[in-house]
Write a structure and sequence with these properties.
By secondary structure, the protein is α/β, with parallel strands linked by helices. The chain has six helices and seven strands; from the N terminus they run αααβαβαββαβββ. Strand 4, helix 6 and strand 5 form a beta-alpha-beta unit. The chain starts with 5 loop residues before the first helix and ends with a strand. About 40% of the residues are buried. The model has no long low-confidence stretch (mean pLDDT about 95).
Length: about 200
Amino acid sequence: MAKLDPEQIGRLLRPYLDGEPPRSLYERVQRYISLLEIWNKKLNLTSVRDPEQMVQRHVGESFYMARLLPEFQTMLDLGSGAGFPGLPVSLLRPEADVMLAEAHAKKAVFLREAVWMTGSHARVWAHRVEEMEKGYRFDVVTLRAVEEMREALTAAMERLEPGGTLAFFTGEGGATHLPEAHWADVTTHHVPLSSGRILIARLAK
């Protein structure tokens, strides 16, 4: 299959973006997807094999989440895997300090290479989140396609600042199972061109 060019990537991403970003963003996505295709053959980072679907379902939906997030300075992408949604969020929010947490050693190596290839400012935490320094918290914690979602959400809560935002993907009609907490507001957003949803929940301060 022919390699996607930046113009094609731009057309695929348009439904998920607000306005027209610089061409350099599409070029970064092109490098990201090319790298993901190579690594996916040996590491199975995603079940999606078609590069256009990778752009839309992974990068596009991550960009859409970035649009929904409030202003923030720090973000933790818990169980980052192939880097979604954290790495695309870092490309749209370069001023933020984004940490990609992935305990699987080989996946963490991929993430470091992807960060370098895309010019992202994200950092990689190649350990379990529980091993972070006690009290280390973030303005935003995101999750996507993690195993044992209920347990992951509990771990995410332990890393949220008061007033912080929890954001995660859920399937159509999927239960949210938000942990018990004093939530200031909770909203659900339908993902463009998908049956999936994004849940955004903000803790009370």
